[in-house]
Fold these 4 entries.
Entry 1:
Amino acid sequence: MSDTIYVLVTGANRGIGRATVAAMLDERDDTHVFLGSRDAARGEEARDAIDDEHPGAASRIEVVQLDVTDDESVQRAAETIETTIGDESLYGLVNNAGIGDRNADLRQVLDVNVRGPRRVCEACLPLLDRSDGRIVNVSSAAGPNFVNECEAEHRDFLTDDEVTWKAIESFMAECLEAADEAGDFESTGVGDGRAYGLSKALLNTYTMYLARNHSDLTINACTPGFIETGMTRPMAERRGKDPEELGMKPPEEGTTAQMFLLFGDPEGSGWYFGSDAERSPLDRYRAPGDPPYTGD
Ligand SMILES: NC(=O)c1ccc[n+]([C@@H]2O[C@H](COP(=O)([O-])OP(=O)(O)OC[C@H]3O[C@@H](n4cnc5c(N)ncnc54)[C@H](OP(=O)(O)O)[C@@H]3O)[C@@H](O)[C@H]2O)c1
């Protein structure tokens, strides 16, 4: 590992991504963070805000325009990173960018939450440190909750550690076709009918696939927990409740698992972790503080 630890975080202009950048800069003085933002100006604003809270941090932040649904943008971001790091390696990649399913259809949700991390991984894999590099895919408990509601065939597929990307592609195509026929994904009866849950279940499946194919990297997925952000705040507003009353925590408390998977010593690769940084199963919910999943 070089003296400077280079890490890319996608969707880092707000919410959990921004908090993850701040945590990395605050807890380690050897980090240089590429703050991915699909809108460069929003990325600059986030950098300034982090600098206000952590004076001097801006000199260790480089904003990179990065829309995870846009091949060219992803490629350009990887080239920018390559230029900055020169002969050194990218230590970490945090695939944090994501969208919910309230205002987006299945196609969009899969494009951002599943194909997005895949695009960024493909572009960044050649840059990653092959002795100790890390990829962290920010998933959600909605994934295991979705799998839990699946019929056996789908559950077996989504938890298959021999899965291939081609099979993941086919599964997404089948779900899209079924949703087109039924009018929406909810009416297909697959899993719990949530596009977001399907996307995060597939992100966990993809994480297994990626880890199996890159055994020289440590690649895991995690949920950040139930965190008050632009994604979840509307949920509280709809219910007329305070986010805290619903159990949402501030973004600063949504980085524990990501920080552990980046800088700690996870025992495995291709696993999914809860917000308490302990391993969780892919097919059912494990609450933070409950005994870790042992793989049985
Ligand atoms: N909040 C929770 O309770 C919770 C729970 C479980 C998992 N998660 C996961 O945590 C991650 C972060 O979510 P959050 O709660 O912090 O939500 P958020 O505040 O809505 O932030 C989402 C981030 O993703 C970015 N993004 C969306 N589409 C993008 C695209 N096409 N390309 C690049 N960036 C894109 C957004 O950029 P713009 O500002 O440009 O829109 C924003 O920076 C997501 O993967 C989410 O699924 C959150």
Entry 2:
Amino acid sequence: MNIIIGISWPFANGELHIGHAASSLPGDVIARYHRLKGDKVILVSGTDCHGTPTEVKALQENKSPKEIVDECHVSFAKDFKDFGISFDLYNRTDDLYHKKFVQEQFVKYYNNGYLKEKEEEQLYCDNCKLFLADRYIIGICPKCGAEIKGDECEKCGSLLTIDEVKETKCAICGNKASYKKNKNLYIKLSNFQNNIKDLLESKKSLWRENAVNFTERYLKEGIPDRCASRTLNYGIDIPIDGFKENII
Ligand SMILES: [Zn+2]
Ligand SMILES: [Zn+2]
């Protein structure tokens, strides 16, 4: 039998911690079991090199994202080895083979009509040159006036949307955040609502209860389209006209 086991890819923005060790252990145990049985096993993971956390870390340490990624990859690979995780492949997402595969898939989705363009106003920091995810925004709670991070007030317990937050600033550098148009490609997951419903019905008795509940909740709310590209500096280029400023 051929067995592929994938362990989640840690983000290149710091050091591994005990949680990474704990979450990689079950996959390693299963891989060893199947190898002893004589099955063909690939236990695979790698360093996730692209994303906001990596770019923020680079800004904070005054280094390039590539330098951060290179440092993290060496330390992650060593830690996993020292911990004894028996990877057949521990790779990185800026590997050329991976980049080429992702670009091919992305173009295929685009040509088959599964990606759509959407432009949104998003909070941006002119100083960091970054669109700010909620967790990188600080501001004032409109209900109680406390200083808050993101869209949740710890003082009065209000759950807000980010455009309700007053006096928004960049949490990385403290600069005032301003709205800027951000164009991205979204994967039309909503097209698959019925397929996923059918899949759930046919597998319901085999799935765990929490997986069933979770899927049912999404189906009830309607599966949302998901942003599939990013406006960052370090990532995989999108080989589609009009999206040269975005990455995957
Ligand atoms: Zn509040
Ligand atoms: Zn900033």
Entry 3:
Amino acid sequence: MDFTLSDEQRQLQQLARDFTRKEIIPIAAEYDQKEELPWQVVEKAFEVGLLNVAIPEHAGGLGLGMLDECLIGEEIGYGCMGIYTVLMASELGLTPILVGGTEEQQKRFCQPMTEKAGLYAFALSEPNNGSDAAAMHTMAVLDGDEWVLNGTKMWISNGGMAEWTVVFATTDRQGGHRATVALVVPKDAPGFTYNKIKHKMGQRASLTSELVFENVRVPKENQLGGLGDGFKIAMKTLDKTRIPVAAGSVGLARRAMEESIKYAKERAAFGKPIAEFQAIQFKLAEMAMGIETGRLMYQKAAWLVDQHQPHGFESAIAKAYCSEMAFDAANEAIQVHGGYGYVGEYPVEKLLRDVKLNQIYEGTNEIQRVVISRNLLK
Ligand SMILES: Cc1cc2nc3c(=O)[nH]c(=O)nc-3n(C[C@H](O)[C@H](O)[C@H](O)COP(=O)(O)OP(=O)(O)OC[C@H]3O[C@@H](n4cnc5c(N)ncnc54)[C@H](O)[C@@H]3O)c2cc1C
């Protein structure tokens, strides 16, 4: 078993690490406070080749694999989980096009995104159903060769700002997942509006929106897969994109550990640096154990995706494990910082606020356990 990254992967990792230190860390707190998406970071990520990295080569993109995406995700997650969500929610919105789109559709929806900075979005959740996604209410009715879309989507990352939004809708509310479709909706479609959701606990540098569709006409050629494929495409997408969430969580945990090490060496109590107390040392050791274990888990899941092997079980474990491990690491990092950890002067307070979302989005960790146990019992 070879754990060595290729030269290209090490270069990619270094590129993402340098980008994080130069472009993300210096502005992360400011954009968190302003609750604003830093568009200049999106543009710079595009310029250096860190945006929409999964666009296939036949559509003019880099065609990077899941492990590559995760290596980027870990570095960006180290810098700011909110900015991570901006960039990675774009890969999330792109993935259904790769999973369910024809080559022609992939070219149509991807090629323009290789020419200028732009985002994708993935719109599955609704005000009344998140985990129970198949119970969606957003309706799609076929009128000639166009779908007419009506309904509301909730909590959509990059929502309203994305050039393309993949919207999941039903053609029959009694029909369950067999009546679902996936439609690619352009930003400027008449009848498509959005409302920004404010005052989030964390990840405030990411844009989260409610999307409203009022008689939005979507050409049939923008439908991914066939009638009834919508839910399947959404689930196949999430089986993959949960893995970068795990990687981002590992990055955040690494930040929590490094900030704790730094502080523990600087802060003195009872006449010596607190790093000399075993209680503090053990917290650092726990963090390191979680980070190493989590990285192995996300890398295995990503490797399975890249080998075109089944990966749903492993991706659910990676997502649930890493997000919980990162939450614990951020929580303990505040403890190591004492009272100073509880205020915004040090980055650890933001880490804890940001990481909570990792246990909720892309399927809550309860839903991950449903997936994991279903695999065990089937
Ligand atoms: C900031 C943010 C960004 C987001 N970005 C996106 C996005 O880009 N696209 C998108 O489509 N969605 C997005 N979401 C939505 C997110 O995926 C949902 O919030 C999540 O899936 C949970 O759905 P819910 O909020 O409706 O909670 P519910 O489904 O109502 O769940 C409430 C609680 O019940 C538990 N529960 C529900 N069903 C079960 C069950 N069967 N077994 C055990 N426990 C269960 C849940 O785990 C949770 O603890 C985002 C959410 C947030 C907050």
Entry 4:
Amino acid sequence: MHVFVRPTQKFLACQVCSGLTFARREIKMTTTGMTFIDLDWLNRSADGVICVRCGFVHTFMGDAHQWVDPAAVDPKDLPPDPLGPGSADERRTSD
Ligand SMILES: [Zn+2]
């Protein structure tokens, strides 16, 4: 799956390897005492966005990101992926 980030209006690229495909995993955010200082939302589950290429886990809370089926994404809208399939060929032909 791809992940669209609303504040930047861009698809997420992995912070480590610039990968564009991610798996999803719920992450429990367990904190103590937050209820008393009105930070109860910190106790909700976070959305773990795991890069399928390098395994780096990006952790999101709230609703600023959105999972998108790759079939629904125009590849032109994705950030450049220096390690992705096709990008090496594209570089060769444009050089
Ligand atoms: Zn990665």
